[in-house]
Design brief:
2 domains, 80% helix
Length: 106
């Protein structure tokens, strides 16, 4: 076996071990993504249990990423009402998430 083929074999070994590491990392990322998607689905289900307009405010703010002024305009509510309802609803949602085991304190 020549020096050149020995080097090629070493490169193949390194490549295959790196591929294994990369595959493990990809599997880990996808596992985390699946868990995150399940948690998001559960949180959306919690939001759906809120009464209107709290449900609409939480959905618009967190899921649709709308600004508070846009939400107030769309729901025809004063901005101060939207802010206070968001604050209270967010507190209730946080408690529901903690009680539901979605949050582990970290």
């Amino acid at each position: 076996m020549g020096k050149s083929s020995h080097i090629k074999n070493k490169l193949r070994q390194i490549s295959s071990s790196q591929n294994a590491i990369i595959k493990e990392e990809i599997a880990y990322i996808f596992t985390d993504e699946i868990i995150a998607n399940e948690q998001i689905t559960s949180i959306v289900a919690l939001i759906e249990q809120f009464p209107v307009p709290e449900k609409d405010i939480l959905s618009a703010y967190y899921l649709d990423e709308q600004k508070l002024a846009e939400i107030a305009t769309a729901l025809q509510l004063p901005l101060s009402t939207v802010k206070s309802k968001l604050y209270r609803s967010r507190d209730k949602l946080q408690k529901s998430i903690i009680d539901g085991g979605f949050y582990n304190g970290h």
